[in-house]
Design a protein that fits this description.
Elements lengths: L13 H18 L1 E5 H17 L5 H11 L2 H14 L8 E8 L6 E7 L4 H5 L11 H27 L8 H12 L1
Antiparallel strand pairs: 1-3, 2-3
Helix pairs in contact: 1-2, 1-4, 3-4, 6-7
Length: 183
């Protein structure tokens, strides 16, 4: 019977699926981000997050257990040295899946999966609120903003005209000409 055995088989045999997930986990650990299909990314998340959680405790037993899954000593050392330091304070959720659209050849949903603490671009960019409707206040605000900008533009043009003693006399009329043209 098939009671409560709900994981995606990914149209592969068990050995092929284990080898593919191990290779994808190694690539994710080494490169911090990989492009794949959505189904594989979801299966990979279930595979790699317990390994990252195990890497927080650096013991011989945990290293051997992770090595039995990955079979790559460089990925294991990267996981225990670099990644475990970054995720030490995080209780879970070490990966992020971002959908990238549909692949043209077979219409498969594609995405990239990445380690959350290693994406510098997502951490630094602030999220802006997107306005969908315009109000009367928003229509009046640009007119109020334009007036101070014009005053600021005139102020620097007057400053060089007040101190012509330091500059040659020939340059003073040239500095006043753009200010007169702007008015």
């Amino acid at each position: 019977m098939r009671h409560n055995k709900k994981f995606n088989h990914l149209s592969r045999t068990a050995s092929h699926r284990d080898a593919m997930l191990a290779n994808m986990a190694i690539s994710l650990i080494m490169h911090k981000r990989i492009n794949t299909t959505l189904a594989k990314a979801k299966a990979l998340r279930k595979y790699v997050e317990p390994l990252i959680n195990r890497s927080k405790e650096d013991t011989t037993a945990s290293r051997r257990l992770v090595f039995s899954y990955l079979q790559n000593k460089y990925a294991v050392s990267e996981l225990f040295q670099v990644i475990s330091d970054k995720v030490a304070g995080r209780p879970g959720g070490y990966t992020r899946i971002i959908k990238t659209g549909i692949r043209q050849g077979d219409a498969a949903a594609t995405c990239f999966i990445e380690l959350v603490d290693f994406d510098e671009n997502m951490a630094k960019t602030p999220k802006k609120a997107k306005r969908t409707r315009r109000s009367k206040k928003a229509a009046e605000a640009p007119a109020a903003v334009e007036a101070p900008v014009a005053e600021v533009a005139e102020a620097p043009a007057e400053a060089p005209a007040e101190a012509p003693a330091e500059e040659p006399v020939a340059e003073a009329p040239a500095a006043e000409a753009p200010a007169e043209a702007a008015e």
